[in-house]
Amino acid sequence: MQEILRHDSLRMMAKAGAIKSVQIIGQGDGFALVMTPKTGEEMPLITKRGDLRRFKKLETVLAYLKEDCGVGEATLKFEFWNKKQGDLAL
Length: 90
What we know:
Helix content: 10-25%
Radius of gyration: 13 Å
């Protein structure tokens, strides 16, 4: 079972230096975040409702990571990003 990540956990892990990597992944017309802790496997950022947290603009993701969470480095993957495409039903 894949672990999930919420905002408060991401912020605490960043402050503690417990993050190995953060990926910004383009999907459809938005972006999602996946964090890998130093001890564990990839964890997608989710909302309070349990849905995948999606950002419409790359600038919003960057501001969220840097200003809200204290993360200053991330990898951007945008192979499946298409600003003209809506959400994909999975």
